[in-house]
Fold each of these.
Amino acid sequence: MSYDLGRAISAENALDDWVEYANRLRAELNQAKASVEGVKAVRDQAIKELAKLDPKHFFLVKEKRNEIYDLTYEEALKKIEESARAYSNSKKGMKP
C-alpha cells in the first residue's frame, strides 16, 4: 500500500469517527431538549397547583423563579466546566 493511500484511508477513518461523535452529540442534545420540555411541563403544572393553594407565594412571581434559576444555572455550569477541565487534564497527564 502506498503512503498516500494509507494517509487517505486514515483520514477517512478519522472522518468516520468524527461523524459518529457528532451523531452521538446530536442525540444527546435532542434528549436534553426533550428533558427540558418535560421539566417545563411539570413546572407549569406545579405553579398552577401552588397558585390554588397559596396565591401569594413568592414562587408565583416569575422574577423570583428566574433568580433561583440563574443562581442554580451558574453554579451548575461552573461545576460542569470544572469537571470537564479536570477530565481533560487527566487525559493529558496534568493536575487539575
Amino acid sequence: MPYRKRGAYGSQPQSRLACIWLAVTVASVGGWFLPSAIGLAGEDGGYALIFFCVVLAVTAACSASLRDAEGGLLDGPGGTILSASTITVTYTYELKP
C-alpha cells in the first residue's frame, strides 16, 4: 500500500466518518432550539422534534466516538494495527525427540 499523506480527516475512512457524525451531532443539538426559534408550540410537534433531536444527538455522538477510536487504532499516532509497531502474539515451538 503506498504511503498517503494524512489530511484533515486522516487516511482512514473511519476518521472521515467520525467527522461526519460529529457534524450530525452538532446539527441535532442545534435542533433542540428549533421549536422555540420558529415559534412551534410543544403540543403541536415541538416536543416530538426535540425528542428526535436528542435521540439523534446521542446516537451520532456514540457513533462518532466509535469511528474515531477505530480510526485511531488503524492509522492514528501510535496506531497498532496497520503500522505493525507492536507484536501482539508470539509463538514458541519446542521440538522434543
